[in-house]
Amino acid sequence: MKISSRFTVAVHILALIKIEREYTLTSTQIADSVNTNPVVIRRLMGRLKEAGFIDVSRGNSGAKLLKPLDEITLFDVYKAVEVVEKGHLFQIHEDTNINCTVGANIQSVLEVILESAQNAMEAVLKGVTLDSIVNKILVNNG
């Protein structure tokens, strides 16, 4: 199972708005950078707006950041666009054979481990700000 690309596209959008802040970026221009359809960008920008990260105006007035990127973590973006509830990142197969030793016990054993794995991943995301992502992009660009 993969986490939807909505997460990384949303990070891309925020980084692009920050790096190209001198320009008015439309959803079409952002879509060109992401290499996707502007409708996908508009949907994600709607979620980022609901989260209070950006302001979006109709037409060609573009998007602007409402919150400094050092105040937005990857976890914040993840929660804004993924909507994965606590303990639900992994889906455990259901309807196992309860007459089998493994089938009767696998779910309860895996639930604890997989919830711990989700918590660990989320802790990593909480420790990374969008500002650090932008800085790494700029360093890589030379």
Structural notes for this entry:
By secondary structure, this protein is mainly alpha-helical. 58% of the residues lie in helices and 4% in strands. The protein is built from six helices and two strands, in the order H-H-H-E-E-H-H-H. It has helices at residues 6-19, 27-34, 38-50, 74-82, 101-126, 130-141; strands at residues 54-56, 63-65. The protein has a two-stranded antiparallel ribbon with strand order 1-2. A hairpin with a 6-residue loop joins strand 1 (54-56) and strand 2. Helix 1 (6-19) packs across helix 3 (38-50). The longest helix is centred in the last third of the chain and has 26 residues, at 101-126.
Summarize the structure.
This protein is 58% helix and 4% strand. The chain is mostly helical. The chain has a two-stranded antiparallel sheet with strand order 1-2.
Distance between the termini: 35 Å
- Roughly what fraction of the amino acids lie in strands? under 5%
Q: Which ranges are low-confidence, i.e. pLDDT below 50, for 5 or more consecutive residues? A: none
**What is the total tally of β strands?**
2
Rg over alpha carbons? 19 Å
Q: pLDDT average, as an integer? A: 91
Structure annotation, total helices: 6
Strand order within the widest sheet? 1-2
Q: How would the global form be characterised?
A: elongated
Topology as a string of helices (H) and strands (E): HHHEEHHH
Structural class: mainly alpha
